[in-house]
Design brief:
Layout (H helix, E strand, L loop, with lengths): L1 H27 L6 E5 L3 H6 L17 E3 L37 E2 L5 E8 L5 E9 L14 E13 L4 E7 L7 E10 L4 E10 L1
Parallel strand pairs: 3-9
Antiparallel strand pairs: 1-4, 2-9, 4-7, 5-6, 5-8, 8-9
């Protein structure tokens, strides 16, 4: 009888432990994540949909690239901008995919209107959406830094309120660009100290 009770007690403890672990995973992972861009498709979405493989944790939570707001004066450190400073999302900061190939790009045309699209898994009160692009002659063989970007956004979309599950807005892409560039999209949250970051590789 004592042995049986002991086993039941141990079994119950394991179940509680697993449940607690599961709750921790939810609270520290997907439940804390909130949005990403899929037009132009972001690196995190390429990992999530399997176009790029072996990305690590980001493949399960593309919406979780959240870091301090206030870019470029504040925000993630240089070299960690695409991951928002999360070490377990570091694949996003690398100039090559985990398999060593180039990040797939979206073809865009400078000087023309483009429709940007966000997908949200949790909707927050919003200040704005800002879009930055790399400078001509930037070093595409190194992680993204402020020095590689035009730090004045080429498009700012003010937004007062909570966005719907899918949000699109249009703006004119910079002219005078050619070849491979990175567009950095930043969704600034109004009622927290954070923003969400998404890097998209494009070809002008």
């Amino acid at each position: 009888m004592r042995t049986r009770i002991g086993k039941k007690t141990k079994w119950y403890a394991v179940v509680v432990g697993l449940a607690t672990t599961g709750a921790f995973v939810l609270s520290s992972g997907g439940a804390s994540g909130h949005g990403y861009t899929d037009l132009p498709i972001s690196r995190q979405k390429l990992c999530a949909n399997g176009t790029v493989t072996n990305c690590g944790a980001i493949q399960w939570e593309p919406q979780s690239v959240e870091g301090p707001k206030g870019f470029p004066a504040a925000g993630p450190a240089d070299g960690q901008i695409c991951s928002a400073g999360h070490g377990h999302f570091s694949a996003l900061d690398q100039p090559k995919t985990p398999s060593g190939g180039a990040w797939p790009t979206t073809k865009v045309n400078g000087g023309q209107s483009y429709t940007f699209r966000w997908q949200f898994t949790a909707r927050h009160s919003t200040t704005d959406f800002r879009y930055y692009v790399t400078k001509n002659g930037w070093n595409e063989n190194a992680p993204l830094t402020r020095a590689a970007l035009d730090t004045t956004p080429f498009l700012t979309v003010p937004y007062n309120g909570q966005p719907p599950a899918t949000l699109s807005h249009s703006g004119t892409l910079p002219s005078g660009k050619s070849g491979h560039h990175v567009i950095l999209a930043v969704w600034t949250i109004a009622d927290t100290g954070n923003a969400f970051y998404a890097c998209s590789d494009v070809t002008f």
